[in-house]
Design a protein that fits this description.
This protein has 3 helices and 6 strands; from the N terminus they run H-H-E-E-E-H-E-E-E. By secondary structure, it is of the alpha+beta class.
Length: about 130
C-alpha cells in the first residue's frame, strides 16, 4: 500500500473546525510563517520525526510521525486559546481525512514563547500521529 502525505489531511482537518477556521481563516502553513505575513492568528505545522512500523514480513503500512504545531497570535492569551482549540480538535482523533486513515493523534508536550522578529506569541505543542494501514 503506498504511503500518503499526511500534511494536507492535517491542514484540512484543522480547517474543518469552525472555531479554528473563524480565527485563522486559511492561515495554516507548513514549516514556518511566510515572510511578510501580518501577525494575525496563524497555525504552523512542522514534521519533526517520522518512523515506519514493520513486522517479520516487511513494512506494516503504519507511519508514526511527530508534528510540532504552533498557534501564533499577537497576544499570549490569544495564542494559548488557539493552541487549546487545536488540542481539542486533534488529541484523541481517529478517522479518515482526505483518504488518509489516521489511527490516532495524541498530544505530547507544550511550550509557549515570544518571537520578536515576528512580533507574535506562539503556543507550541507536539503531537504523535499514527496513520496508514487499516
Amino acid at each position: 500500500m503506498p504511503l500518503k502525505d499526511i500534511r494536507p489531511a492535517l491542514r484540512s482537518h484543522l480547517l474543518a473546525d469552525a472555531g479554528i477556521a473563524a480565527i485563522v481563516g486559511a492561515r495554516v502553513h507548513s514549516v514556518r510563517l511566510p515572510s511578510g505575513v501580518p501577525a494575525g492568528p496563524s497555525i504552523v505545522y512542522n514534521l519533526i520525526t517520522e518512523s515506519t512500523d514493520r513486522h517479520m514480513t516487511g513494512p506494516s503500512g503504519l507511519v508514526i510521525s511527530r508534528f510540532q504545531i504552533d498557534a501564533w497570535a499577537t497576544s499570549a492569551d490569544a495564542a494559548n486559546n488557539l493552541g487549546l482549540l487545536i488540542k481539542e480538535r486533534l488529541d484523541g482523533f481517529r478517522g479518515t481525512v482526505e483518504s488518509v486513515v489516521i489511527q490516532g493523534i495524541f498530544s505530547e508536550d507544550a511550550r509557549n514563547d515570544y518571537d520578536s522578529a515576528a512580533n507574535a506569541h506562539r503556543a507550541q505543542r507536539d503531537y504523535f500521529v499514527t496513520y496508514g494501514a487499516t
